[in-house]
Amino acid sequence: MQSTFSGGFSISLLCRTLFVGSDSRSIRGHNNTFDILSRICIQKHTPINKRRYKSMASHEKMEYTILSKSSWRQRSNGCCNTEWMTMSQFLDHLENPQAGSVFYIQRQNSNFTEDFPELISDVPPDIPWATESFGKLPDAVNIWMGDERAVTSMHKDPYENIYCVISGEKDFLLHPPTDRPYIPYGKYPAAVYKESSPGQWKINPMNIDTPKVLQESESDNEESNLVPWIRVDPLHPDNTRYPKYKNTRTLRVKVQEGDMLYLPSLWFHHVRQSQACLALNYWYDMEYDIKYAYFKALETLCE
Amino acid sequence: MQSTFSGGFSISLLCRTLFVGSDSRSIRGHNNTFDILSRICIQKHTPINKRRYKSMASHEKMEYTILSKSSWRQRSNGCCNTEWMTMSQFLDHLENPQAGSVFYIQRQNSNFTEDFPELISDVPPDIPWATESFGKLPDAVNIWMGDERAVTSMHKDPYENIYCVISGEKDFLLHPPTDRPYIPYGKYPAAVYKESSPGQWKINPMNIDTPKVLQESESDNEESNLVPWIRVDPLHPDNTRYPKYKNTRTLRVKVQEGDMLYLPSLWFHHVRQSQACLALNYWYDMEYDIKYAYFKALETLCE
To answer: Which residues of A touch B (CB under 8 A)?
Structure first.
């Protein structure tokens, strides 16, 4: 593996520099990410999501919500295997992108602490001001690294999110949760991409004979083979199909190396990144308080 | 004036007993309110709201929202005078209620500190735990005393409300602000009661030639001679006219002597009281934060 990025700092120093100090926005990381990861983890086999660009795709004239392999595994109680590759292979793919195949470390569920135990001591276990503010420790620390074509479609999370970019940059497009009435949701059958041959992907609809598993999913959906998904592409909104969407209020935030973004729970977000951007985020469980009750009341009115 | 209530404690001791201690609910006041008020304030001329029972009334086949004299004065920039009587007269009325006339000290706008300066030193200027929690001092300290027939119709306030009953009891009927979609609002022309002869009241529609003043009112109403009012009587709801109201979730709270109720901002409340109940409340300005944004989003969907 050849790296176009090099530098004299360890990831430990990067993270400590990133997180210590009253104004993390004024502190930048350094572009030695590839070097460090390849040195520490090059022979490590790492779970990777392979997927195509869009999280929504058509197949035989039908639209599907495309789940990642990891969420498919969660939903289907282990019937599918996550794909693995070495960090060396992964970094090679990032340096030499191939048409059609998009790789992204984004397994969530605290994949930083679960999948990269070698790096745990380099990173603080929590963000002290956030832990004090939220009155709890984070539920998860996630690591994100991948292809610039890996765009995360608009969604919301039930977590207070402290998002830290270590190298590269991320572009967040945000709507407040009070814009829920203007966000067009649809319910679609779920599918996963399957690599039929190297670089060739086909839609693989989920087996609708597994309703029990789906009923336990986050969709809270009685029609359990359907998954809610936000239809609109905020970068190219279809104002004819989704006329209310233009009522949303939009914030655009570029999070650069050394920046830390507090993304409050239930805010809608769409995320892009620079090629091989490396980021960590801390998920603090949200409070199911009057704010959540308000959100559910809004949601009920929208349904 | 004759008083059926007597006791050995001053209002000062009552209030200090009420407010000091970790569990104010376990501490009761004493029934010497009449005695104390008559001793301190008997010759004092005090602004009193005279009004009839209902805050909604019909006149010539039209329904009106009945404003109190004080709010009418606020809205009309001083064109009407508040009525005054001595505390002695007021207490006599409470002891000998007359059909048709209902008297209530409820001017708000910090009427405790404005109208009863003699008693200020008897009462703490704020509630320390609330001041710490809300990060500010109260905007107003109000005193409430009156006829058991003076029922306050369902409404909400933009204040965090710490409600302290000194003697007697109050019955609160509460709905959370997330029930806004089920609360039937109407918009009605405003009126005040006018005492045409002692004990005889007539509806006096407000002059609709004063739109400027009304445009500045809290109604935020472009059709500025109309005032929003919650139509339903929660004690006898008309399920045929307001079928959604049955979806509300109701809390009933009896606040007794020595009890302190925290009534959060924007909660809907309907209030009854025992005859000659005496209460103080502290209004802390609400935060216009995400909760307020949620409420306004709900309200927008309901309009």
So the answer is: 176-178, 180-181, 264, 290-291, 293-298, 300-301
Query: How many CB atoms neighbour CB A249 within 10 A?
Result: 10
pTM: 0.77
- A67, A189 in Cβ contact below 8 A? no
ipTM above 0.90, yes or no: no
pLDDT at A291: 92
Nearest CA in chain B to A290: B291
Nearest residue of B to residue A289, measured between CA atoms: B291
Q: Regarding the domain with residue range A9-302, which homologous superfamily does it belong to in the CATH classification? A: Jelly Rolls (2.60.120.10)
Task: Judge: A294–B296 Cβ closer than 8 Å, yes or no.
Answer: no
- Kindly report the number of other CB atoms within 10 A of residue A187's CB atom: 13
- Cβ atoms of A88 and A40 within 8 Å: the answer is no
B150: three-class secondary structure by DSSP: coil
Residues in A closer than 8 angstroms to B176, CB to CB, are 290, 293
Contact list in A for residue B174 (CB cut-off 8 A) is none
Phi-psi region of A181 (alpha: psi -120 to 50; beta: other; left: phi over 0): alpha
Alpha-helical segments (H) within A66-217: 69-75, 87-95, 111-115, 128-134, 211-215
